[in-house]
């Protein structure tokens, strides 16, 4: 799935728009109408639009502590530094002070991502020009080493919450597309790393059902092990990609963005055994956890469609539970994708 066509690239935008709610806003509606021939232009367009909107609100600034030798006092005096200056016959004070600055990590991440996009040959001049104009407002912001970013340590609050989508997109780009050259420089790959697409695919399906079907409960819930003695030391956590529940029915969906949706041996195609064991385990443990409650639990492997001739599409009854395998064609128009997702809910829950 590394060679992306125009339709698939447009669908990356739609998947991002569900993963990052801000992209649903009318400010980004022009992007949905554009035709992109590569993902670099798509990302550059979203960033250009998003950073432009952020500049209208003002760049986020935060207080940072500075220590500097000054001719006049500012903040508080740093005694060791001032004494050292005195010994060296320097007529300055070493001062510590706080200053409100836009040179913080959130803006540094934006600038670093934009500068890498600007160096990429696949980004069209139109988008580069927009980004260059916006970078004029980042003249006091440093670029940083992408590998130094601790994404999970970033904190969002009322004053910087508008950055959440932009930083999420930067993480998607830097973690999913960044390659290091032999010289230690960075460049972008022509494809998105499969692991990042896997995560986006899961997030998209979950958020689609959350927004489209508020009557359903959609979550990435943890499934308890059905233990006879309660001893669970060293057992791995079981967390579903998507769990849908409504009235007396539960559907556990395991989303799979794999290069091959089937395994083959001696020209015989079968469902990936590990995936089937996994969803079966989820379903049986979930069934056991609800006890005598009148719930019907089913499971589904939902693969992103590949270029293979044979695509899995089957339903089975296993130990009293329904297990099905389907594919989602991400290379079709988004309405077709939506119809496929809707059909799953309508078939299993009878909810339109």
Description:
Keywords: Endonuclease, Hydrolase, Nuclease. This is 5-methylcytosine-specific restriction endonuclease system specificity protein McrC. Its EC number is 3.1.21.-. GO terms for molecular function: endonuclease activity; hydrolase activity. By secondary structure, the chain is an alpha+beta fold. The protein has 3 domains: 6-60 and 103-192, no CATH class; 64-101, no CATH class; 205-349, 3-Layer(aba) Sandwich (Trna Endonuclease, Chain: A, domain 1), CATH 3.40.1350. Helices cover 39% and strands 21% of the residues. It has 10 helices and 15 strands. Strands 6-9-10-13-15-14 form a 6-stranded mixed beta sheet, sandwiched between helices. The protein has a 3-stranded antiparallel beta sheet with strand order 1-3-2. Helix 3 (39-57) runs parallel beside helix 6, helix 5 packs antiparallel against helix 6 (125-135) and helix 5 crosses helix 7 (164-177). The radius of gyration is 26 Å and the shape is elongated. It starts with 5 loop residues before the first helix and ends with a helix.
Secondary-structure map:
Elements (H helix, E strand, L loop, with lengths): L5 H14 L9 H5 L5 H19 L4 E9 L5 E2 L1 H9 L5 E9 L3 H14 L6 H11 L28 H14 E3 L5 E3 L5 H19 L4 E3 L2 E2 L14 E2 L2 E5 L2 E8 L6 E3 L2 E3 L2 H17 L6 E9 L9 E5 L2 E8 L5 H16 L3
Parallel strand pairs: 10-13, 13-15
Antiparallel strand pairs: 1-3, 2-3, 4-5, 6-9, 7-8, 9-10, 11-12, 14-15
């Amino acid at each position: 799935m590394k060679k992306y066509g125009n339709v698939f690239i447009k669908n990356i935008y739609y998947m991002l728009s569900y993963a990052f709610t801000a992209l649903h806003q009318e400010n980004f509606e022009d992007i949905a109408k554009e035709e992109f021939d590569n993902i670099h232009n798509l990302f550059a367009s979203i960033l250009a639009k998003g950073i432009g909107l952020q500049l209208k609100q003002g760049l986020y600034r935060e207080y940072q502590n500075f220590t500097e030798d000054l001719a006049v006092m500012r903040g508080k005096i740093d005694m060791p530094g001032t004494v050292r200056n005195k010994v060296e016959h320097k007529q300055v004070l070493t001062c510590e002070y706080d200053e409100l600055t836009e040179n913080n990590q959130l803006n540094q991440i934006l600038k670093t991502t934009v500068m890498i996009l600007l160096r990429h040959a696949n980004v069209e001049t139109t988008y580069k020009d927009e980004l260059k104009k916006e970078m004029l407002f980042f003249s006091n912001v440093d670029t940083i080493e992408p590998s130094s970013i601790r994404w999970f340590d970033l904190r969002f609050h009322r004053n910087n919450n508008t950055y959440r989508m932009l930083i999420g997109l930067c993480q998607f780009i830097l973690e999913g597309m960044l390659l290091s050259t032999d010289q230690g420089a960075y460049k972008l790959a022509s494809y998105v790393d499969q692991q990042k697409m896997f995560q986006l695919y899961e997030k998209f399906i979950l958020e689609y059902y959350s927004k489209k079907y508020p009557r359903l409960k959609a979550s990435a819930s943890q499934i308890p092990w059905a233990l006879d003695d309660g001893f669970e030391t060293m057992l791995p956590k079981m967390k579903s990609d998507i769990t849908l529940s409504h009235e007396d029915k539960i559907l556990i969906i395991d989303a799979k963005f794999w290069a091959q949706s089937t395994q083959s041996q001696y020209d015989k195609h079968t469902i990936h055994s590990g995936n089937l064991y996994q969803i079966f385990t989820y379903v049986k443990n979930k069934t056991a956890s609800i006890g005598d409650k009148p719930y019907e639990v089913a499971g589904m492997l939902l693969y992103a469609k590949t270029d293979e001739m044979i695509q899995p599409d089957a339903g089975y009854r296993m130990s009293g539970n329904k297990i099905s395998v389907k594919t989602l064609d991400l290379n079709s128009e988004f309405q077709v994708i939506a119809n496929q997702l809707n059909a799953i809910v309508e078939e299993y829950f009878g909810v339109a």
